[in-house]
Structures are given as structure tokens and as C-alpha cells.
């Protein structure tokens, strides 16, 4: 047995002797200079998997990290895999050597990249950047995502496994493809953003009623981009300075979400730092002192550039309540309206939940939706999920629910039309009365109107005016019967008005009031 040093020296000479003069070699050990882990080693490992080169080898070493789900592949001792990039051929090998003695023995692993000497510069300047880019993309695709939530001044980390994707998201197909293209352009936009001097970030405002898929959209975005999510609960943030600490501690390639921005803070008008009033605990956690200007400093001020490739999303159910400062062009780059179900949306949900792309009942769903029934995707999914094994039952139940909504709406609309008709009638009557009497306008009071009303015994009206109860009851009965027979309220009002003798102000008013009841 020869001492280790001598063996190594002989090995070196032997290799040098064997090495053809026209080849160059790059060694990539797992331990970098001064004992720091060499990240390039892991990058090469990922690249060989991503480029499917490992599968070409006959012998592989498999391992699994307890924190990772997948298996890691490595080339076994004598395996050589060939890669070709832009017509240039290179060879990869992997070797493991035991070094040190007894207790201090450890394994040194390294990849060796062999190339023709004439291609050395190309490998340095083009091939290796290609290896790194591909490995990073692969890492992005397979890595776990995390959801961070803020507790006071720090982030708590949770594994994020939300199944929502752009395929499962039901929404207007045009809007969906616009969002996807925008995200793609953003991801690939590093050079562009830097060229035009803009921070590499993008803001989205998602708005719409509850249950239309705003949270699902955020999850779909995160899964699509492979970005972690920072769910920022503003009411838990003490002040602007804590907000700053939290935001500078978010990483690149992440989505920062502030949900229900209209409810998170009384943002409107608070553009200046609030000062705690005397006696108030300056650290009071419930009374957030984050201001709109503090928040805006992070969305488009200097601090927003502490980290690249970040997306900021605000959501709201009440677009109209937002401060115009938040909506200013250039602040939120894209406003995305998540709306009630349309037929296209329904078809996506139906395909996902029931695995059907067409059904004889689709036409009924379509006409109800196109007839103006407002139902959220969340409501639709309840019917589909609850009956996912029986599309007939699922669709029948959904249709009957939608009919109920339509009837409710018709009732409400009827009431609106009713009130509108009363309004018009009363206005016309006042004008007519004034014209006929050619008097100065007289301010009507309940008492003065009552003077017009017949002297019979009264029923109390909602508006405080008194009218004869039996007349109101009869009128209500007639109105109900006509309604049941599908006579519209406008027609009823017309018919009643005509049926009355060329009447006095008080009689017509009584009709109007009765209808209002
Ligand atoms: N557009 C949609 N596409 C697919 N599923 C949806 C959609 N909208 C809602 N859903 C379903 O309804 C559930 C609730 O929706 P989600 O939480 O995304 O709505 P939201 O608009 O964020 O509601 P809120 O404003 O109350 O937070 C989701 O888990 C999903 O199953």
C-alpha cells in the first residue's frame, strides 16, 4: 500500500499522460473555495436532470433529502453523458473520492466537464450560462412554494399547496389570457425593465363580489409563476416603520398580497403619518398606524426596489371605496374584474367538476345567465361539487336555484318599477293640480294632503299619510291578482289612472300610495 499523497500524485501524472492535448477540463467540486458549499455543483446536478441527460446514463446514484419530495439523481462513477449545445459537444462525468483518514474521512464529489480546447471560450461564455439558466428554471418548476403571513413584525412561513391554476380558474377567457400574457411578459422582462429604468415589479388590483375567485386567481398566479406568497395583514402592522421592515424582508420572485384593501385600513385621507394621541399606547396593536403614503412608498417609492421581480396584489369587494391615489395610472398596472358567472365561466366549472363539455341542460343555464341571473362561481361550484357524480342532478339543482334567483330579482325589479311608477304618477299629479288650479305652489304636508283624502276611516300608511283602509285593501288585492296573471306594474298604473274619472289630486294620490304599499 502506498501513502495517499503518493497515490494522488501518481494518479495526477497518469491522467496528464492520458489526457489528449486537444481537450480542456473544468472541475466543479461540491465544496467551493474555503469550505463554502459550491452552488455550481448543485446547479449542474439540476441541469443534468432538467436536460434529461441523466436518463441517458446506465448507472445512476439515487438519493433523497428528507425535506424534499422527489428523488435526486447523480451520475455513477464511470458514467459519461454527452451534451450538445449550438452544435458544440461536451462530456460530463461525476466522481466521488474518499479523503482524510479514519474518523476524519469525508467524501469529495465533483463534476468534470470535458470539451475540445478550441471550444473553451464558448463553453465559458455561452454553454455554462445556458446550464445555469436551465437549472434555475427547473428549480423554479419543481420547488415547493411557501405562504408567509405576518405576525406583528415578522413573517411566519407555511408550505403552500393550493391546487388552483389558470386551467381550473373560471373567468372570461379573454381576460384570463390577457393576465397570463402579462405575467409571461413580466417574468421575461428583466432586461426590458432595467433598460427603461423601471423597478422590476408589477401591481394588480383584483376586484369583484365575494366568491368570484379573487383568492383563487392569486393562487393560480403563484402556481404559474412559481412565486412564494406574502399575505400581508395590514391590521396586524403597527406602523409604517414595521411595514418597511416586513417588506424589505420579502424575497425576490414573490407575490405580496393585501386582501380587502378597503377594509384593512381607514386608508382614505390618511396620507400623513398619524401621531398617537396623548395617553394612547404608541404600540397598540389593534390601532394600526400604517398610512396610505407609507403603503404607497412600497408600491412605487424607492423602497419598492429593495428586491427584484415582485408582484403586488390588492383585492377588494368594493372598488368604489378605494382612494383614487391607489387607482392612479402606473400604480396598479392592471385592474382585473372578477365577476359573476357568465356562460363561458360556467362551462369551465362544469368541465372541471362534472367532466362534461356539453349537456342538454346547458341551453337552460345559458338562457338564465344571459337573461341576467347573477350567481357567483363559488355558488355554482357548490351545486356541481355536491353532485359531481351525477351531472343531470347537479345541473337540474343549479337551474332550479337560478330560477329562484330570477324570481327574487323579478320581485325586486317589480317593486322598483312600482316605486318608479308611483313617483312619476305623484309628480304628474302635482304638476297637473298646480296647472288646473293656477295657484302658487303649496307645500304639501301630511295634514294638507289628508284634507284632500275622503273623510272615511283611515289605515296608517308607511309614509305616515292616512287613507281609507278598506280601499287600500281592495286595491292591494286587485294588484296582487293582476301581478299573478303577469300584468306589468306600468300597465296597471296606466289602467287604473284611466279608469278613474277625470280625477282630483287626492284620488290619484291615494292610488299611488296604495300601490306603494
Ligand atoms: N372564478 C372561479 N373559478 C373557479 N373556482 C372559483 C371561482 N370563484 C370561486 N371559486 C370557488 O369558490 C371558492 C371561493 O372563491 P374565492 O375565495 O377565490 O373567492 P373570492 O373572490 O376571493 O372571495 P372573497 O372576496 O370572499 O375572498 C374557491 O375556493 C373556488 O372553489
TrEMBL record:
The keyword Zinc does not apply. Gene3D superfamilies: 6.10.280.40, P-loop containing nucleotide triphosphate hydrolases. Residues 200-342 form the AAA+ ATPase domain. Residues 430-454 are annotated as: Disordered. The keyword Magnesium applies. Keywords: ATP-binding, Magnesium, Nucleotide-binding, Signal. Its cofactor is Mg(2+). It holds the Pfam family AAA. InterPro entries: AAA+_ATPase, AAA_N_dom, At3g28540-like_C, ATPase_AAA_core, ATPase_AAA_CS, Mitochondrial_chaperone_BCS1, P-loop_NTPase. It catalyses: ATP + H2O = ADP + phosphate + H(+). It comes from the Eukaryota. CDD domains: RecA-like_BCS1. PANTHER family: BCS1 AAA-TYPE ATPASE. Belongs to the AAA ATPase family. BCS1 subfamily. This is AAA+ ATPase domain-containing protein. It comes from Sphagnum jensenii.
